[in-house]
Amino acid sequence: MSGKSDKRDFIRDIIAEDLATGKHATTITRFPPEPNGYLHIGHAKAICLNFGLARENAATGAVCHLRFDDTNPTKEEQEYVDSIIADIKWLGFDWGEHLYFASNYFEFFYECAVHLIKEGLAYVDEQSGEEIRATRGTLTEGGQESPFRDRPAEESLALFAKMREGGVANGAAVLRARIDMASPNMNLRDPVIYRVLHESHHNTGDAWCIYPMYDYAHPLEDAHEHITHSLCTLEFENHRPLYDWVIRHCPVPAIPRQIEFARLSVNYTVMSKRKLLQLVEGGHVSGWDDPRLPTLSGLRRRGFPPEAIVAFCERVGLTKVKSVTDVALLEFEVRDFLNRTAPRRMAVLDPVKLVLTNFPDDRVEEVEALNNPEDKSAGTRKVPLGREIWIERDDFMVDPPKKYFRLAPGRAVRLRGGYIVQHTGHTTDPATGEVMEIHAEYLPGTIGQDAPEGVVCKAAIHWVSAAHAVDAEVRLYDRLFTEEDPEGCEGGLLACLNPDSLRVVTSAKLEPGLDTVDPGYRCQFERIGYFSADTVDHEPGRQPVFNRTIGLKDSWAKQKGR
Ligand code: ATP
Ligand code: MG
């Protein structure tokens, strides 16, 4: 990935101008995940943006911080911190020494709150949560002022100290900013900025029993770290006046600017952590890293290359307009990357035996196969060929329709990289009519050569030598939902789960060598799709477990008639 970029969008324009006018000498951005779930492809957009800006402006000393926004003790866990770190590294980004935890700023948040109280800009409210909600007003009507709003600062200071010391029960008091109960912007109607929560925190343990609210803490975190451009999604546009209010009235060392952009939404999937958690906890998927989920750990396990995810985020671009991105665009990037980089291997997923009746019983030939027919520089490999081979059941038809050019009675077909073989007979199960074994003769001298006079050969099929085949489990993944907008689905998102999103093939036959690859190994199974060795269940030397990353073509486009 290059350092300099020719990308242009409204955020890069703002930054370029700030650098040109000297408002800032460099840029400091941040990616601020809350460690309460796994990252998904939506987060990847924010990661690519923030870390990408640092990379593009590296010459000016630009950096991007990784900051865990861990101010809520109830939902956060170390497991999530670890997974987030692993996912960002996997995408190829680096925060250097700039790893921060918002929970390390609790003292600073507290001092700012004390300052606000002294300035008459915050007060301790002893109304119940219920009362505070009930007096907030509506979109069309202002709220009512709290009876505690005008209490003396000393009283609030003493109560706030008592809250900190543990002398106040959960919910018995909160600290509110004293702004404007009549504001048309509900966020400015004396928002709660601190609450009492007698809970242990994953980083600070039991040192605190009051915790700051997001809208108050986030601007202070940004200012504390001298963030220049605080980039967030559009839902926070209405919160910006509060963001700016906090910055204006607190003793902060720098003035960050919040800029909003449209979040990434992708069809045929769900992205909110709450919905993902519902799928995980309901057992509808195998875990946060289920290959059907849009989580980065799921996509990684599925075999999606990080380069393709970054390319996708760049292609989607940045706007202020809400939109839904077609998942086909992501799939396109995955295919595009794998087409260029993935070695080709042969695998038969639905095997039927083909016997080359004129091939000596004990002979094994090493056939030279191209690792990538579209890229000769990828070289070749030797694949063993014996008298008995596996081919795909649907590469033979007893009664073929027009335009079917593969194997059929009396017809010839080429084995990829090998001989042309000519059908001589087959046996069928008398009960079911299913083909049990196919017989053919190979035509000597046809490797790399055209068919001899009088033989018509219009197709090449993949195959695996029966004596050398590696038995494998192959997991055929497809989209998790059948509807474009699962959340808008009648009956809820569970009602439109795709019943065929996972099909497990337990009797696949792979070309030898695929049993010793490392977990995460990616290749194309010729004519079928891109596959990768499962990162959890595949172990070199044991029966392989492969995941279908994606088919060679967009099969959904056909169904939709596009
Ligand atoms: P979710 O809404 O999916 O539960 P979140 O926004 O609560 O996620 P955070 O951990 O707060 O998750 O997000 C970290 C950063 O990622 C934030 O700056 C947020 O704006 C950004 N982000 C989250 N979802 C998306 C998305 N779909 N597109 C772009 N950026 C996103
Ligand atoms: Mg959120």
How would you describe this protein?
The chain has three domains: 10-261, Rossmann fold (3-Layer(aba) Sandwich), CATH 3.40.50.620; 273-343 and 472-559, Ribosomal Protein L25, Chain P; 347-462, Ribosomal Protein L25, Chain P. 25% of the residues lie in helices and 23% in strands. By secondary structure, the protein is an alpha/beta fold. The chain has 13 helices and 25 strands. The longest helix has 16 residues, at 41-56. 40% of the residues are buried. The strands form six sheets. The chain has a seven-stranded mixed sheet, with helices on one face. The chain has a seven-stranded mixed sheet with strand order 19-16-17-18-12-15-20, with no helix packed on it. The mean pLDDT is 95. The chain has helices at residues 10-20, 41-56, 78-91, 106-118, 129-134, 153-165, 214-224, 240-249, 273-281, 296-302, 306-316, 327-341, 555-559, and strands at residues 28-31, 63-68, 99-101, 122-125, 174-177, 192-196, 210-212, 229-233, 257-261, 344-345, 347-348, 351-356, 365-370, 380-385, 388-392, 412-415, 420-428, 435-443, 457-461, 463-465, 470-477, 502-510, 522-525, 529-533, 545-551. Strand 23 (522-525) and strand 24 (529-533) form a beta hairpin.
Question: Secondary-structure blueprint of this entry?
Answer:
Layout: H1 10-20, E1 28-31, H2 41-56, E2 63-68, H3 78-91, E3 99-101, H4 106-118, E4 122-125, H5 129-134, H6 153-165, E5 174-177, E6 192-196, E7 210-212, H7 214-224, E8 229-233, H8 240-249, E9 257-261, H9 273-281, H10 296-302, H11 306-316, H12 327-341, E10 344-345, E11 347-348, E12 351-356, E13 365-370, E14 380-385, E15 388-392, E16 412-415, E17 420-428, E18 435-443, E19 457-461, E20 463-465, E21 470-477, E22 502-510, E23 522-525, E24 529-533, E25 545-551, H13 555-559
Parallel strand pairs: 1-2, 2-3, 8-9, 10-23, 12-18, 16-19, 21-25
Antiparallel strand pairs: 4-5, 5-6, 6-7, 11-22, 12-15, 13-14, 15-20, 16-17, 17-18, 21-22, 23-24, 24-25
Helix pairs in contact: 2-11, 7-8, 11-12
Bound molecules: adenosine-5'-triphosphate and magnesium ion (MG).
The site of adenosine-5'-triphosphate has 14 residues, from α2 and β8.
